[in-house]
Fold these 4 entries.
Entry 1:
Amino acid sequence: MSKIILFDGVCNFCDQSVQFILKRDKQEQFNFASIQGDAGQELLKINHVPTDINSFILIDGHHTYFKSTAALKICKELKGAWKLLYGFIIVPRPIRDFLYGIIANHRYKWFGHKQSCTLPSPETRKRFL
């Protein structure tokens, strides 16, 4: 079973993060779903994700990860030196999530947002739910 990343489809920073992952996920382990889409909404319900979560979400089998833990687990699977970022998992989660929250809470202000989700390219469309 593939790993699924749920992301904010109207957030420019989140969109760029998805593009970043696509370029470095050479084994195509990750599939993607916008939180705003039907598939994303269904996955949120199935995995009992709190409605107020402000985060990338990683669903890996029966495990669901949020915030900095999701980001670090994703980095661990990417090609290149990005794997090394997983070492930050030793930092206590409240500290990691605090720093993650600063970016998450200001992402629209700092990076902007769009009116609708970007359509994936034909090459990557199969990886979007």
Entry 2:
Amino acid sequence: MTTGTRTDTGEIIGILGGMGPAATADFYAKLVATTPGSSDQDHLRTVIWSDPTIPDRTEALLGNGPDPTPWLLDGSRVLREAGATVIAIPCNTAHAFVPRIADHVGLPIVHMIGEVARHLATLSPRIHTAGLLATTGTVRAGLYQEWLDRFGIRMVLPDAAAQDAEVMTAIHAVKAGTRNDGTTALLTRAARRLTGQGAQAVIAGCTEIPLGLPADAVEVPLVDPALVLAQALVRRARAKGRTE
């Protein structure tokens, strides 16, 4: 049972990370910041498996690299054996492979992209058009298109030139440890092009993007899927606590 704001409900969050390591660390920091409480004991128990050897998800989706599914499945099993009761994957592109592992993991996976779509549908004023900054793999896989369609939200994307020269260049820079004014300028230009196409919100649809694009650089809401996922996990844990 829970008392006060305690969220220790028997739920143990398994974070399947390493895609990339900085994004995993950022996600855990957001999970901690999102959890209400005033002491160590108020926070969620968490197991983190950060495996940077998982093959590049975009390269796999474009047919230029190995399938990361075996690594994702192995990592999920590590988390389950370590005691996790639910899995979170703070990598947008990796969600293209979730259908391949979901039935073999033995644990529920909180779907980050689905949570983002639901979050957008709750914003006021109502979001009719959202822009997406993401890896080319995420874009090509149609991950956000599929979910936003379910909620009647139109999606706009960078053109091919901006996707390569601005979005992917910035993502690779952040993965390499470079976060500077140049990286921010690339992502800001790409985001402003999306608002010029009518985007009422911009989805930072790669977990490296919020590390290089401050929310105040965009004139519309910048939706951080990692933060949305963290909030969903806290809600889940608290709801579970109320039923125990």
Entry 3:
Amino acid sequence: MEQFDQLAAPGYPVFLGSEFEHPSAEQARFHILPVPYEESVSYGGGTALGPAAILEASWQLETWDGKSTPSEQGIYTHPPVSMEGSAEQVVNNIAKATQAIVEAGKFPIALGGEHTVTYGVIKGLLAAGERDFGVVQIDAHADLREAYEGNPYSHASVMKRVVDEGIPLFQLGIRAFCHEEREIRSDCRVHYLDADELVPNNIQSFELPADFPSKVFFTLDIDGMDPSVFPSTGTPVPGGLSWYQTLNLFESVARQRQIIGFDVMEFAPIKGFHAYEFSAALLTYKMMGIVERNSVE
């Protein structure tokens, strides 16, 4: 794994670097991939600053997450993915980096950046030979437009790119979508539990369809959570998931299927409000803990 055997870029923080020496790539199970990509945001900006802010805030975390110590399995932080070139080139850069992580037998965790990043991660999984997997998405938006403002690589089109690859999709917490997306949901047989059902009924767990793949990549858009928890995102929508509901739904999936990677997207730090940066880092770490505790050896 010589291609990984380096620290993150000079001046760029590593996850939980305050608590232990940065492990070698070979020693670590969890591989953090920072992707500070922001090109097609359609409202508030700042997601390019998200990965570094999460990594910096992680230095304030405890290694004990309340139930276990996921850092004992090793956390390796990669240098940020190159943002040079067109949207297609950046997606390919993300795919190449993800492919290398998966082919090394490691667990990829991407930190964005706008939600377009997820398509690059999915392409990397496919390139690494993963085939029989589905995607579970927490989000305020369906992201199923064929293109947005003429851009097929828009953050508003990322899940359409995913289903175009033939990958089954289950959406959680959606509460903002257009007629086109409703039609695509039906045409592509997208499964969903929207916010208007999840939140008023305080649903903490759910059953994936019996024919949903045995492996899952989980993508979490910060705006899927309520703005009272995370106002630090470019496109907030009221009526979202709470902190514990989000983690419980993630664990519900982890108990049913093998999670092969996850991402945390669309975090846009608010200057002077470090509580949200810490919360995003803690969310990422708690998701690692859930994966660790539900892994089948």
Entry 4:
Amino acid sequence: MRYQTQSANSQGLLLFEDEETAARRAAIDELHVRTAIYTASPVVDDLLNRLGWPDGNGRLVDPSCGDGMFLARALDALLAARPAGFDPRGQIEGWEIHPAACVDARSRVAVVLASHGWSPARAAMLANDMVHNRDFLTDGPTTPQWDIVAGNPPYLRAANVPDLLRNEYSRHVPDYARADMLHSFLERCSRTVRPAGRIGLVTADRWMVNAGASRLRERLGQRLSLAHVERLSAETAFYRPKQRRAGSPPRVHPVAVVLVSDDGAGQNLSGKPIHPGVDESRYEDMQLLGDFADVRIAPWLGTEGVFVVDAATARSLPPECLVPAVDTDDIQNGKLGTPTRWAIRTYPGEEPAPEVMAHLASRMHLMAKRGRQGKVWMPPESFHTFDLSRESLIVPRIAKTPKAVRVPPGILPINHNLSIVAGGAATLDEVEQALASPIAAEWARDYAQRLEGGYLSLTTTLLRRMPMANVPA
């Protein structure tokens, strides 16, 4: 049975809609709240200029136009270059899934038209023809239609897209472009631009650097070349519609990207990550950290209280089963404090002491689901093969620079922090100095994934590839 619900349209009139329509409207509203981040006009103007707009009789589309800033700036530039009374329909159009945002976009376009001499009524009519209240991912074309695609597509991981819409998109988007709505828009735009056409977008940088987007980059490279990329400031690149909280920058690291459709010639996009603004030649011919040091990730032993215990619990367990353990909260003023927790060390082929088995039986119900695996006396990531007899370094994996802290022998770093043991001719002193050097900090800023507040995500792969200028070969 279908039920009718009462809602108001953009003019405030009461409407009745069936349950299916109401669910879809709610999903679109939810999507809009999560993705409505609009681009400031200076950024728009710069990107349109890089795209060479206006371009003769070329056709431009914004596939997710929001409140119409890209359309308005493109339209103003076009009308300024055309005779009075020029009808821009067929040369500029926008698509927007959210009804209220679509109304805003039409209003903004109508204002531009009126400023170029159209009557308000005629301007409103033209604007309605130019801005479509439709979903580009499900209703948009899949063959070349436009010479220029320009805009700021939504950035939202698939897991956060409302279920109703995510299910719809799965029927229209190839698997390699489903992880994020940005990926889906990039893929669709690549198919709708004509040969020798251009795509200019403001995007999050995730698709350029994340390993999970390598297939997307590779497939885009079959159609497109990268002509320009630059980082933008999140604080100045965007403004927000009224329903979003003002006063704080969006949680995104934006880039301006220009892609060129060259019909199969000269692609320079591949599965390899793209690092905007990085001069890779400056790091050539340097020793890499992974060449002379063992970089490993500290084990995650699961929920604290099971395989990681406090002093009171440790006193009830056999000392030979315990190893002092440290995390980043044990670091104070750049130094490692006295450990306050212990890790229970067990072995796959050997059942531990009765006290340990009793402790695990009483605490295993606390363990996170992803930590329950294998034998009941083994942690989710075992460390029984680790050689703890040597001094090591711990490098916090979330940090502003890759500075390290000394860890004495016999102490285990935990919780996926990065652990380094010197090898070869290098000493731990040299490794520590190299990590604190300006070149290491620059490398991290260039290549690490950016987080919030200036923090970076450091990984074992990143550190192994980090150039160390002051370490002997």
